[in-house]
Amino acid sequence: MKLNNKVAIVTGAAAGMGEAIAKEFAKEGAKVVVNYSRSSQEAEAIVDEITKDGGEAIAVKADVSKSEDVKQMIEKTIDKFGKIDILVNNAGILDDYTPVVDTSEELWNRIIGVNLKGPFLCSKYAIPYMLKEKKGVIINLSSIAGFVSGGGGAAYTSSKHGVIGLTKQIAYDYGKLGIRANAICPGAIKTRMTEEILKNDDAPVMEAIKSVPAGRYGYPEEIAKLALFLASDDSDFIHGTPILIDGGWVAR
């Protein structure tokens, strides 16, 4: 198995892409921390499914935009598993395509807090433990909105551009110390978070989805396969790279 005996934290893992990544990692031998921020019911159900299939996982509640929550999540991981090999900064929220003039400071702070400050905090507190092992992998979830406009509103697009910058800087600062950092940049992926948007043919994103070379939206399991590749030694020479998995959205 590609991740045998590795310890992985997956933020925002109670549904969607995070859930798919957590399950894929567990299937490949990783011990998984399933992070959630609201109800524990869904996270615990994922943990139960992983353990019934012979894997090992725990659910840990933490708001990734809050430093103390992140510290406690890292500490619980170390207490349970003794190390951190892989960090997937997946937790993210949308801003309903809100343009800059209509973006309140509250909305801005909330989007930036989860989407950009979250990966910063999780990386900040996980990296010291990776340095002790002289090896580690950080995978940040950005978006096509990290490359182009139109994939979200002002706050969302700014946050996802920022995630790519953070990823590159982590790779630059820590690559020679054994830590690889890369970013996954999905296009339109069918998850519970995007379900309502994808039902609405008038949504701005729908016109783009219909025109991408793939001619469809993507699925969380496809993102999980890419995450597995980036988490494994198969991608050992890939550092600081934002990888598009968008059905050709940006290539149009």
CATH superfamily: NAD(P)-binding Rossmann-like Domain
What is the average per-residue confidence, as pLDDT, rounded to a whole number? 95
How many structural domains? 1
Strands, count: 7
Large-scale geometry: globular
For the terminal residues, how far apart are their CA atoms?
Answer: 37 Å
Ranges where pLDDT stays below 50 over 5 or more residues in a row are none
CATH architecture group name: 3-Layer(aba) Sandwich
Class from secondary-structure proportions: alpha/beta
CATH class designation: Alpha Beta
Family: Belongs to the short-chain dehydrogenases/reductases (SDR) family.
GO molecular function: oxidoreductase activity
Organism: Acidilutibacter cellobiosedens
Keywords: Oxidoreductase
What topology does this entry show?
Elements lengths: L6 E4 L5 H12 L3 E6 L3 H13 L3 E6 L5 H15 L4 E4 L15 H29 L2 E6 L12 H21 L4 E8 L8 H5 L4 H8 L8 H12 L10 E4 L7
Parallel strand pairs: 1-2, 1-4, 2-3, 4-5, 5-6, 6-7
Helix pairs in contact: 1-2, 1-8, 3-4, 4-5
Q: Could you explain how this protein is built, in words?
A:
By secondary structure, the chain is an alpha/beta fold. It has a single domain (7-245), classed as Rossmann fold (3-Layer(aba) Sandwich), CATH 3.40.50.720. The chain is 46% helix and 15% strand. It is built from eight helices and seven strands; from the N terminus they run βαβαβαβαβαβαααβ. It has helices at 16-27, 40-52, 67-81, 105-133, 154-174, 195-199, 204-211, 220-231; strands at 7-10, 31-36, 56-61, 86-89, 136-141, 179-186, 242-245. The chain has a seven-stranded parallel sheet, sandwiched between helices. Strand 4 (86-89), helix 4 (105-133) and strand 5 (136-141) form a beta-alpha-beta unit. Helix 1 packs parallel to helix 2 and helix 1 (16-27) packs across helix 8 (220-231). The longest helix is centred in the middle third of the chain and has 29 residues, at 105-133. It starts with 6 loop residues before the first strand and ends in a 7-residue tail after the last strand. The mean pLDDT is 95. GO terms for molecular function: oxidoreductase activity.
